[in-house]
């Protein structure tokens, strides 16, 4: 297969982790202590690292099983609907009786694309992996996890599941273990902090030595940089530039979209360099929206600018 070509192949990916509900206020006014600002609009949208990556994967032609836990409250009902409406398979998204679903209040300034986030964590919704979830993970081409889904990796490996695992490490991952990770995808700041160095290429090499075959680093306007550990042990580095954002809305969820798009590229058979370019482009186009999902492009929309 030509690595520059995207073939439409309905492989599946299992996404494990956080699904939230975002309440987004759009305002061009600065936040001030004890102040009051006027919003241009207030909207409700689905969010969460693994959940937004799942939506990006579906839009790019990949079947997705989402595995996670939410409460049986009204917020949880909206979270569940937001994923099923996108075509994400949600048999593994459990509604825990008496649990509180996670939610966030976000103020986005469209003039600067900056945002301020206030998060309400989930309560009583610990992640549980069932036998059906294990079967979904075993048949998947990839498993994508975030900081919460990372906790499920020991259970997956103990069950004999050898599916490659992608880790979104943009947020802090407690008890990080890279030995079972195939694709480690942190932000530049997170990578440097975790690897205790100031040089990103050195940090990539240190991370690769800990187990992953691929380390892909998001660097905002600088694009992305990836290191690949060959079977010989040689490390090859690949970079991809950022794309200008048409009609900038906000950068909310852009990292989550990048991770979903990168995994989608690998599932579709792209080599790492064109997969990075695809992920940068998809994340840039997603920034047209105020929320993290509404402007994620479909595979059909993506084909034209790639050509």
Q: What's this entry about, in short?
A:
The protein has 307 residues and is an alpha/beta fold.
Question: What does the secondary structure layout of this molecule look like, with pairings?
Answer:
Layout: E1 12-16, E2 20-26, E3 41-47, H1 49-59, E4 63-71, H2 74-84, E5 89-96, E6 103-109, E7 114-120, H3 131-139, E8 142-145, H4 153-158, E9 165-168, E10 183-185, H5 188-195, H6 200-209, E11 214-218, E12 224-229, E13 235-240, H7 254-267, H8 272-286, H9 299-306
Parallel strand pairs: 1-4, 1-8, 2-6, 4-5, 8-9, 9-10, 10-11
Antiparallel strand pairs: 2-3, 6-7, 11-12, 12-13
Helix pairs in contact: 1-7, 5-6, 7-8
State the main characteristics:
disordered N terminus; single chain; four-stranded mixed sheet; 13 strands; 307 residues; 30% helix; alpha/beta
Descriptive account of the structure:
The protein is of the alpha/beta class and 307 residues long. 30% of the residues lie in helices and 25% in strands. It contains nine helices and 13 strands. It has helices spanning 49-59, 74-84, 131-139, 153-158, 188-195, 200-209, 254-267, 272-286, 299-306; strands at 12-16, 20-26, 41-47, 63-71, 89-96, 103-109, 114-120, 142-145, 165-168, 183-185, 214-218, 224-229, 235-240. The strands form two sheets. A nine-stranded mixed beta sheet has the order 5-4-1-8-9-10-11-12-13, with helices on both faces. Strand 11 (214-218) and strand 12 form a beta hairpin. Helix 5 packs across helix 6 (200-209) and helix 7 (254-267) packs antiparallel against helix 8 (272-286). It is globular. Residues 1-9 have low confidence and may be disordered.
